[in-house]
Every structure is written in C-alpha cells, then in structure tokens.
From TrEMBL:
Protein function: Catalyzes ATP-dependent phosphorylation of adenosylcobinamide and addition of GMP to adenosylcobinamide phosphate.
Gene3D superfamilies linked to this entry: P-loop containing nucleotide triphosphate hydrolases (3.40.50.300)
Coiled coil: none
Protein keywords: ATP-binding, Cobalamin biosynthesis, GTP-binding, Kinase, Nucleotide-binding, Nucleotidyltransferase, Transferase
EC numbers, comma separated: 2.7.1.156, 2.7.7.62
Catalysed reactions, as listed in the record: adenosylcob(III)inamide + ATP = adenosylcob(III)inamide phosphate + ADP + H(+); adenosylcob(III)inamide phosphate + GTP + H(+) = adenosylcob(III)inamide-GDP + diphosphate; adenosylcob(III)inamide + GTP = adenosylcob(III)inamide phosphate + GDP + H(+)
UniProt name for this protein: Adenosylcobinamide kinase
Catalytic site positions: 52
Length: 182
C-alpha cells in the first residue's frame, strides 16, 4: 500500500505516519526502513532529527539517510520480505534536490517522482510524509516560489500514485483519497 500524508508544521503527521506504518506492517517487523531526508545543516535541524529519532525509538526502524538521488536507493529484501518504508519528508528532499549542488535543480519534480516509482517497486508498504506549505498567503522571493511550485507538482504526483492521501489537522487524520486505513 502507498499512502501520502500531508499537514502543516506540528500537525501530528509524523506520529500518525509512524503509527500507520506499524499497523500496516504488523506486529513483527522484519524489514522496516525510515528514509531520512533532512540534511543536518544547523543546530535546529540537529534538534529536529533527534526528536524524530526519539519518536522512532524501539519501533524497529532502520534509518537510511537520503538527501538527493532517491532513484538510486536500493533497499534490502530480508527473509524474502520487501521493506515497509516511511520517507520523511518530501519538502526536505525537494529542497535538497532543488538547492544543493549535487541535486537535480530544475529537474527536481521529475527526478523525485522517478525515485518514488523506484521505491514503489521495492517496497511492501510506502508512506511518504510531505508538508502543506501553500496556505499562508505570503508571496515569497522567486526562488522560494519556484520551490513551492515544484513541491506542489510533486505532491500532485504523489496523490495520483497513492492508494490513500491523508491530511493531518491537529492530530486528526482526514482521508482525502482511499481508505479506510487500518
């Protein structure tokens, strides 16, 4: 199953996504992977990474860091089982691909969606967390507006591919596509 989860900052989307993957994956994790996309570039990012690691503690996740080049990621099959994967988060991956020297630049949406297709071929369950950054009504500089446009294009591509698309609002999941989820 492929589920995309979106929501604003602090909405509860991370906790919801982890819990959903655990329910989909079952009691005995054989091959559970967390794809971390946040590049630790400052003290705040290090704090956020630590908070998320603590949230995942004792949940059976193996962490794989992937800042760019999602399509090149090869995931292991263990005991004949494809992995169940949580990718967090798409907004970081998009920023990495768009802004970093080793990223895809203007090809970011195409490269990331190709990477998602590659992940889908390798996974039992895939949950992708993304951010809702489009409702603040603020006009940003051209580069940020281009980033937001790319993230919107990627989110639309995720929605088309997803079996379910969920927005988490104040820790309440609102199923926009698919469902019911376990």
């Amino acid at each position: 199953m492929f589920v995309t989860v979106t929501g604003g900052s602090g909405s509860g989307k991370s906790e919801y996504s982890e819990d959903l993957l655990l329910r989909l994956d079952g009691e005995n994790p054989v091959n559970r992977i967390y794809i971390a996309t946040m590049f630790p570039f400052d003290e705040e990012s290090h704090r956020r990474i630590l908070r998320h690691r603590n949230m995942r503690k004792d949940k059976g996740f193996e962490t794989v860091e992937c800042y760019t080049g999602l399509k090149n990621l090869k995931l292991p099959v263990k005991n004949g089982k494809k992995p169940s994967v949580l990718l967090e988060c798409m907004s970081n991956l998009t920023a990495n691909e768009f802004y970093r020297e080793d990223g895809a630049g203007d090809r970011t949406p195409k490269e990331i969606l190709l990477g998602i297709d590659c992940l889908l071929a390798q996974t039992e369950h895939l949950i992708v967390v993304t951010n809702e950054v489009f409702s603040d009504g603020i006009l940003y500089d051209d580069s940020t507006e281009q980033y937001k446009k790319m993230l919107g294009e990627i989110n639309a591509g995720l929605a088309v591919r997803s079996d379910a698309f969920v927005e988490v609002v104040c820790s309440i999941p609102v199923i926009l596509k698919g469902g019911p989820l376990c």
